[in-house]
Amino acid sequence: MRTYSKRRRRSLVAVSAVLGGVLMLSACNDAGDEKAKGGAETGKSQADVDAAAAKDTSKARIAITPKDGATNVGLNDATNVTVSDGKLTKVELKSTEGGAVAGKISADGKSWKPDGALKRSTKYSLAATAKDDAGREAHENTSFTTVSPENSFVGSFIPDEGETVGVGMPVSITFNKPIKDMKAVQAAITVSSTSNQEVVGHWFGNQRLDFRPEQYWQANSTVTLKLALEGVQGAPGIQGVQNKTVTFKIGRSQVSTVDTKTKKMTVTRDGQVLKTIPISAGSPDNPTYNGQMVISEKFKETRMDGSTVGFKNSEGKGEYDIKDVPHAMRLSTSGTFIHGNYWGSDSIFGSVNTSHGCVGLNDTKGANDPDTAGAWFFDNSLIGDVVTVTNSPDKTIKPDNGLNGWNMSWAEWKAGPSA
After folding, report:
1. Sign of torsion, CA 43 48 53 59?
2. How far is residue 113's CA from residue 103's CA, in Å, rounded to a whole number?
3. Confidence grade of residue 20 (pLDDT, cut at 50, 70, 90)
4. How many CA atoms lie within 13 A of 189 on its CB side?
5. Are strands 137-146 and 123-131 parallel, antiparallel or unpaired?
6. Residue 339 appears among annotated catalytic residues
7. Could you report the per-residue pLDDT of 95-147, keeping only the tens digit for each?
8. Dihedral pair phi/psi, residue 80, rounded to 5°
9. Which residues does UniProt mark as catalytic (predicted)?
10. pLDDT for res 98
11. β-bridge partners, 153
């Protein structure tokens, strides 16, 4: 009995196991079928969703320059937004400092750019929105960082926008960093004139570039300076950040000739002698430079301290220190001026040279007498007018001592240390 009982139980267990397996297999198959059904239904609904989403997507395509994460971005024309198959409706450019940058969307709605230059070493974020013909919106965002002062260079220049200057005024650009690739920098700068004179640049060292024609500018012409330095590599890792156009006027032609022997100055305007003025130039011990000198600054009154230009006494103080020199006009960087003189007697003008190298004109203390020679010449002179000194025992002034490149021949000017 016990033996039979055990065998029966084992058979029942086996049958149960088989039936259980069948049941489990059936259950798995049912689950698979349901999963398959569900997957088919999910695939169908996702396709519907994708189709609906595609239907609602704007056709407008926004492009932003610079790319997201860009560094060393230029300050002028390096930032812009354009759109195809749509029109821009809103563009916001903000710095991390919180300031919004003004800009304009073009009349056709196809582009945007800032109104002015960006700040250096600043991170900006830009958000743009556009709509297509169906009114569906598209959005793009980017952030970037502008070039740092350490990685950029700028040029300060004279004359400035809208000035009227004399016929001898060169365009002079001084860069705040040494330029190694002079050719690239010079190629990005153009100077032209309505007189159609050929204008050529000349480097004085690696930080100053002057432009002039062969002869003085033609009177009453207009000169245009164009700086296209944005992104130009002036030296390894140093790029330009300026795009600027400057226009200035050339006035009447005035060239004044100082003869240190006769001690007279002849003022010629538009080819006609306007006035002859008695002068007192540099003494035999301190003669005035010869050469063509351009008036670069004008001061109704200024201080002249001899110690600043090398004229010191045994105590180390200036041989002279006049705090109110009237009607002073600079002719050189080293301290040559043509100016009024109230401390010398009237008899020295036209008869004896007494100065430390300047050209002196009779004048009064206070610079308030319009009838003096100093006041007349000051009132009738422009920055950029030429004063030519002749017959002095001194040497000719160096071309880079002031704005005096006219003392270099045209062949030297074109062939000199340039690009």
Report:
1. positive
2. 6
3. very low
4. 31
5. antiparallel
6. yes
7. 988 789 999 999 999 999 999 999 999 999 999 999 999 999 999 999 999 99
8. -160, 160
9. 339 (proton donor/acceptor), 358 (nucleophile)
10. 79
11. 240
Residue 331's alpha-carbon distances to 82, 216, 304, 389, 417, in angstroms, are 51, 17, 14, 11, 24
Residues with Cβ < 8 Å from 298, sequence gap 6 or more?
Answer: 328, 329, 330, 378, 381, 383
Q: Is the dihedral of CA 350, 352, 356, 362 positive or negative?
A: negative
Q: Which of 122, 233, 224, 212 is nearest to 169 (CA)?
A: 212
Angle at 115 between CA 113 and CA 120, to 5 degrees: 90
Structure tokens that stand for 327 in this block: 């009607």
Written as six digits, the tokens of 187 are 């190629």
Of 385, 390, 383, the residue nearest 158 (C-alpha): 383
Catalytic-role residue among 202, 327, 339, 356: 339
Render pLDDT for 360-373 as a digit per residue (tens, 0 to 9).
999 999 999 999 99
202, 327, 356, 358: the catalytic one is 358
Summarised one tens digit per residue, pLDDT across range 319-345 is 657 899 999 999 999 999 999 999 999
Burial of 195 (0-12, 13-18, 19+ CB in 10 A): middle
Q: How far apart are the first and last CA of the chain?
A: 119
Q: Domains in the chain, start-ordered, CATH in brackets?
A: 61-147 (2.60.40.3780), 151-251 (2.60.40.3710), 254-404 (2.40.440.10)
pTM comes to 0.78
State the amino acid at position 384 in one-letter form. Answer: G
- How sure is the predictor about 303, in pLDDT bands with cuts at 50, 70 and 90? confident
Tokens, residue 288: 């005035």
